[in-house]
Amino acid sequence: MSAYAIRYADRAAQRKRALGAPQRASLEELEKRLSLNPFGPPAISNRDNSWSAAFQGGFITYVVSNRHVVINVVDLVAL
User: Fold this and answer.
1) Residues 1, 67 contacting (CB under 8 angstroms)
2) In this predicted model, what pLDDT tens digit does every residue of 8-57 receive, in sequence order?
3) Count of other CB atoms within 10 angstroms of residue 73
4) Contact indicator for 51, 63 with CB cutoff of 8 Å
5) C-beta contacts of 46-54 below 8 A and 24+ residues apart
6) Distances 65 to 21, 58, 71 between C-alpha atoms, Å
7) Facing residues of 75 across strands?
8) Cα(62)–Cα(40) distance, integer angstroms
9) Going by fewer Cβ within 10 Å, which terminus of the chain is more open, N or C?
10) CA–CA gap between residue 49 and residue 57 (Å, rounded)
11) Who contacts 31 (Cβ-Cβ below 8 Å, separation ≥6)?
12) pLDDT value of position 33
């Protein structure tokens, strides 16, 4: 199975760029895991075709396109 590509919506991309080094490293580790299986742990179904997954100090919300093998991050929240 191919790894999923991950794309960020504009606002989520801006928030990603603003993360500090520890949060960015944790997010990058999460991206690696999700690219292999966006539906497995630590992903949580939001029951509306979107998923959420936490990283150190924040979380992302995303939708998955199996047709295009893409994860589209629609929001990133740093806590």
Assistant:
1) no
2) 999 999 999 999 999 999 999 999 999 999 999 999 999 999 999 999 99
3) 22
4) yes
5) 50/74, 54/30
6) 29, 23, 6
7) 61
8) 13
9) N
10) 24
11) 6
12) 97
Token code pair at residue 62: 């995303």
The answer to whether residues 70 and 64 touch, using CB atoms and an 8 Å cutoff, is yes
Using H for helix, E for strand and C for coil, what is the string for the chain? Answer: CCCCEEEECHHHHHHHHCCCHHHHHHHHHHHHHHHHCCCCCCCEECCCCCEEEEECCEEEEEEEECCCCEEEEEEEEEC
Q: Give the pLDDT score at 1.
A: 63
The amino acid present at 68, given as its one-letter code, is H
